[in-house]
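Suppose a classmate hands you a notebook page containing two proteins, each written out with its sequence and a corresponding row of structure tokens. How would you begin to make sense of it? This section walks through that situation. The first entry is reproduced here exactly as it would appear on such a page.
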Amino acid sequence: MRGGANAELPRFAPVVEAARGGQLAEWAGVPRGRLSLILVLDQFPRGLFPGSPDAYASDTQALQLTEEGSRAGQYDALTSPWEKFFFVLPLAHAEGPDHLRRMKLALALGEKLAAEAPPHLQPIYQFSLSQANGHLEVITRFGRFPHRNPILGRASTPEELHYLEKGDFVYNRDLPERSSP
């Protein structure tokens, strides 16, 4: 998470390519398999290809897996709050015309997960909610993530340029210190 390179991920590059090519589609048949595929398509590229269009190239695939899996009951079948958290990240990550609606859904699901979290994990869940709220503000304001504009070769509006100059990107905010159980 947090959008940067991850030295542990290069060995998984072939898995990302296989997933992007549809060679791992059978994973989606079971909830944790679908979650694994979502992680490979949503999280791994961000750590493998930071600062390049490839970081976001499989967002649409991950989103489709999330939405189809949710309709099929696979989100509800997951038992861990962390599994559910990562299952729905593509709702927030994938840009598109219905992004605002999906951000609101991701936030509502995050609020439900946070309410169920044990006390010692509350700081991380509250942080995640603050992240989701920050992303919602950005999508409400711009309809997309302006920090991706230079990477994707998109022109920025004057308002987006002002936002970019400030550099207070939600995904770069510090995690809370870990509480003891």
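The notebook's second entry, a different protein, reads as follows.
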Amino acid sequence: MKNKKIFNTIFFAVMVYALYLRLPTILSHFSFQDKKIPVLTVKTMNPDNTVTIANQRYVLVFWATWCGPCEVELKRINEMIMEKKLNPQSVIAIASHEDINLIEETVKKNKYLFPIGLDTDGKISNYFKISATPTVVFIDENQTINWMTSGISPSLTFRISSFF
């Protein structure tokens, strides 16, 4: 019985500490909820193309080539596209401060079907105060942030289906 109490106390302390570490990110996400954003233009891997985030619903995924949870979430989104549950032009995966060759290699390896945005100067990531990857942002047709989260989200596919 004594060992169980010690374990529960340690577990509780670890959970409180984990929440404490995530609290700034969670509060930042809440501050963006229902916020109207300006029209954003994102460069893509194709130097001649840009995507303008305006007048339709978008899911932005801020990711990194080295990020395991990013790969999980992007593969889940890719599967939704392959199953025709999601239009690939509604998703923009944005990589910040990454080597273009590494991005191209990762995209080719994983066969991503959605546009890959390049935030080489970090302006878009800074605007959204991205502090963790993956960070997913839902933007509606009125340029309003509908939902924002970081890390693996067990409800992501459900939320995407509900959003569109």
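A careful reader of the second entry would note: The first strand starts at residue 40 and ends at 44.
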